[in-house]
């Protein structure tokens, strides 16, 4: 898939994410939009994961540690063919398995997440299993920057380097905002690149909305014998002008008018992309 | 030389054990370690995960014999459970081994979400549970573990009473396709079972029949209930003794049968009296409309008395003498 095709897909996925949140009457809008391009690249360029191979022990593993951005993940998995897009309408509805954080009841989901600081330790376990079996698969997790205040991340960061888990990649969705405001004001984690390096990781910093940069950083492990941390600089609420970089859209459901405006902006973005082509 | 640890058994209790033909075995901890090593030798997919706890878990020989099947995570219990869950999700039969006090408190959220909610076949081993660490104090006691895990969906809770039950519990856990928790202590235990006894998860084992009073006991308190039953028999009181090795799912049928057939019930556990086996029994009995004189012999809701495991048991009446007295009082 070309960068241009991925760009078009991201617009489509953003629309589906917003519609799903609107239908659900709940959702983590800002964080879903900040990580959406990362998920798009992962599922369409990087991960050896598909509906056909999901029970193959050698498939790659993706665990979304920042589980609250589940609407983006549900939208991407639908687009990837794990289930029909129409099912996104049932997110958060009574008796729908599409609950507000990832669950294994949904095809394509590896682990139930949502409480923060859980994904990285789980992925360390999966990566150790891969090493034990000399298996070809890689393990990926997506962390939020606010999430890094959870100490369990650093227990796992230490273990990942100790076990030389070069089959493990942690992607940091560094949108610099969390529910209460700027991450640097709530609990500063900077310099986060140096922290991961000091823990023994290979670190790459990329623009988390640039497909070429994401692809380059995620295509292969960066350094033999070291886990990789890809720090993806992103914008919370990316793609919708009035949601971009605004803490109150951490979770928030667009009104009828807001949804209309947001979809209008995305339609315009799509038209522009098609014009270029 | 340090003073010898106080015995779990009074001279009279030792005499009763002899009269009942009970033979002293090894610690359930040792039985666990030997069983796990045996299983791991036969299954290279079986992995033990430790949090600087290979010594406390008696897994030194395991680490030596099968170094590639042991994952050390350092003193990091949250990570221990997360990694154990990840290993299980990736197809390993993983056993997370750590003192129960830390395992079920510090990493409770990992147990709830990564293991139980995600439904991976991980096994959690709570070593030196209850007041096994005795004089080390409350930081090292796990008098909450049954209560907190009972309140979490999708985990089998096993509390073996002797070496036989420990071996069977570990064998079950190694084959389980769903989460399991096993907790035990580190004191040597009397063997309680006849060779022909069958162990089935979810089915209490009757060690002695009687219709005056029923001791419904779990784990390392069961022996004291059995000794008390021996002492009561000498006074003409027939006590039933149930070893409830599975606290969840609870064998409600056996408990109701005891409640209907006996005149009084004493639940016995190495746990706070809140939220453990005793309250589970009370709930089962009351919801079925069975009401009998009832007492939970456990650790009361207070700062636990300082002392060894033996001291603490004796202090709170978890001993042959204490349980005999409790049963006699209830029957009056």
Task: Write a concise keyword list for the protein shown above.
heterodimer, A: 277 residues, alpha/beta, two-stranded antiparallel ribbon, B: 332 residues, Rossmann fold, 5-stranded mixed sheet
Tell me the span between the first and last alpha carbons of chain B.
47 Å
**What is the string of helix and strand elements of chain A?**
HHEHHEHEEEHHEHEH
Oligomer: heterodimer
Q: What is the total domain count of chain A?
A: 1
Strand order of the largest sheet of chain B: 3-2-4-5-7-6-12
What would you call the structural class of chain A? alpha/beta
Residue fraction in strands of chain A: 5-15%
The CATH C-level name of the largest domain in chain B is Alpha Beta
Q: What's the main sheet of chain B like?
A: 7 strands, mixed
Largest contact between protein chains? Answer: A-B, 33 and 28 residues
| Average pLDDT figure of chain A | 97
Task: Summarize the amount of helix of chain A as a percent range.
Answer: 40-55%
What portion of residues of chain B is helical? 25-40%
The tally of helices of chain B reads: 13
- Net shape of chain A: globular
CATH T-level topology of the largest domain in chain B: Rossmann fold
Tell me, what is the CATH class of chain A? Answer: Alpha Beta
CATH fold annotation of chain A: Rossmann fold
Assign the CATH superfamily of chain A: Thiamin diphosphate (ThDP)-binding fold, Pyr/PP domains
């Amino acid at each position: 898939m070309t960068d241009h095709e991925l760009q078009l897909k991201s617009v489509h996925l953003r629309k589906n994410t917003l519609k799903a949140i609107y239908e659900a009457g709940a959702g983590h809008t800002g964080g879903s939009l900040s990580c959406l391009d990362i998920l798009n690249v992962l599922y369409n360029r990087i991960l050896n994961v598909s509906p056909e191979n999901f029970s193959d022990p050698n498939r790659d593993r993706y665990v979304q540690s920042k589980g609250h951005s589940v609407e983006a993940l549900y939208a991407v998995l639908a687009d990837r063919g794990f289930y029909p897009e129409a099912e996104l309408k049932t997110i958060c509805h009574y008796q729908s398995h599409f609950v507000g954080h990832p669950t294994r009841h949904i095809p394509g989901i590896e682990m139930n997440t949502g409480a923060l600081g859980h994904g990285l330790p789980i992925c360390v376990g999966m990566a150790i299993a891969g090493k034990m079996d000399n298996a070809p698969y890689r393990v990926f997790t997506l962390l939020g920057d606010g999430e890094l205040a959870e100490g369990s991340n650093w227990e796992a960061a230490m273990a990942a380097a100790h076990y030389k888990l070069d089959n493990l990649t942690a992607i940091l969705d560094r949108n610099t905002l969390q529910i209460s405001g700027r991450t640097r004001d709530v609990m500063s984690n900077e310099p986060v690149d140096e922290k991961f390096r000091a823990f023994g990781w290979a670190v790459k910093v990329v623009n988390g909305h640039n497909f070429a940069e994401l692809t380059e950083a995620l295509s292969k492990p960066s350094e033999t014998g070291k886990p990789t941390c890809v720090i993806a600089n992103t914008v919370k609420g990316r793609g919708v002008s009035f949601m971009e970089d605004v803490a109150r859209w951490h979770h928030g459901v667009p009104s009828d008018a807001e949804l209309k405006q947001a979809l209008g902006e995305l339609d315009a973005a799509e038209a522009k992309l098609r014009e270029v082509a | 030389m340090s003073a010898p640890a106080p015995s779990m058994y009074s001279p009279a209790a030792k005499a009763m054990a002899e009269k009942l033909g009970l033979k002293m075995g090894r610690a359930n901890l040792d039985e666990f370690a030997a069983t796990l090593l045996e299983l791991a030798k036969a299954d290279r997919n079986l992995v033990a995960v430790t949090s600087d706890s290979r010594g406390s878990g008696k897994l030194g020989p395991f680490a030596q014999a099968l170094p590639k099947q042991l994952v050390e995570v350092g003193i990091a219990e949250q990570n221990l459970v997360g990694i154990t869950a990840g290993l299980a999700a990736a197809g390993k039969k993983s056993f997370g081994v750590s003192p129960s006090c830390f395992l079920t408190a510090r990493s409770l959220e990992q147990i709830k979400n990564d293991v139980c909610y995600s439904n991976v076949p991980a096994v959690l081993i709570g070593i030196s549970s209850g007041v096994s660490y005795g004089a080390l104090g409350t930081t090292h006691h796990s008098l909450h573990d049954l209560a907190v895990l009972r309140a979490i969906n999708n985990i089998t809770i096993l509390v073996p009473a002797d070496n036989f039950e420990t071996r069977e519990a570990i064998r079950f856990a190694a084959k389980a396709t769903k989460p399991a928790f096993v907790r035990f202590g580190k004191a040597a235990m009397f063997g309680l079972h006849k060779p022909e006894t069958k162990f089935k998860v979810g089915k209490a084992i009757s060690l002695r029949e009687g219709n005056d009073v029923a001791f419904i006991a779990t784990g390392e308190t069961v022996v004291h209930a059995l000794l008390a039953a021996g002492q009561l028999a000498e006074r003409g009181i027939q006590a039933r003794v149930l070893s409830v090795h599975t606290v969840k799912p609870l064998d409600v049928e056996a408990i109701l049968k005891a409640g209907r057939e006996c005149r009084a019930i004493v639940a016995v556990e190495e746990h706070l009296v809140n939220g453990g086996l005793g309250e589970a029994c009370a709930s089962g009995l009351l919801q079925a409309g069975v009401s009998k004189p009832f007492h939970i012999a456990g650790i009361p809701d207070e700062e636990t008395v300082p002392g060894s495991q033996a001291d603490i048991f004796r202090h709170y009446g978890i001993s042959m003498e204490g349980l005999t007295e409790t049963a006699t009082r209830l029957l009056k």
